[in-house]
Amino acid sequence: MKHKTSLNRELVFKAASELAEEVGLDHIELKQLAAKLNIRPPSLYNHISGLDEVYKGIATLSMQRLEDVIRDAAMGKAKEDALLEIAFAYRKFAKEHPELYKSIMKAPSIENDEVREAKLSVVYSICKVLNPYHLEDEDTIHFVREFRSLLHGFVSLEEAGFFKVGYDIEKSYLRAVKNTIAAIDKLEENDD
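The structure corresponding to this sequence follows.
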């Protein structure tokens, strides 16, 4: 006998994330989401207040997934190796899940405790990798901002269709990441 899984907010947001990848984040409609969940549209309101909450849920879920990817990539590695793996995993996530990544970029405008906590978890995962560098708190925050800016900038330009002319994109990405990581080694030397 097959048990029917009862619908909850988590399942609604998971289905909404899948729908975002299928039709595009900006094209989600509640009637499409209800159809994906095999329910009538009014039944969605038993779990969510509307489309705005769906977008918040997708952003939260997307950031949680990115945090998982970052944490898993860094596991068992230290310093430069961990940062390189994070950079590769970040780019892979953005390329494989462009609509979920887009939802992450909309997250700063969302005021919600769950979204705020998810945003901080991504930053915390990178900060944790920086612990062996023994940086001052301010230097850690500056580096995290620099590192994330590099990753996002490269991914965004690549997604927009730039970097089509000449030379290997993978080599460009690796060089950019390694040059940024080299800056943290200089910070560590200055702190000694």
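The CA atoms of residues 73 and 88 lie 8 Å apart.
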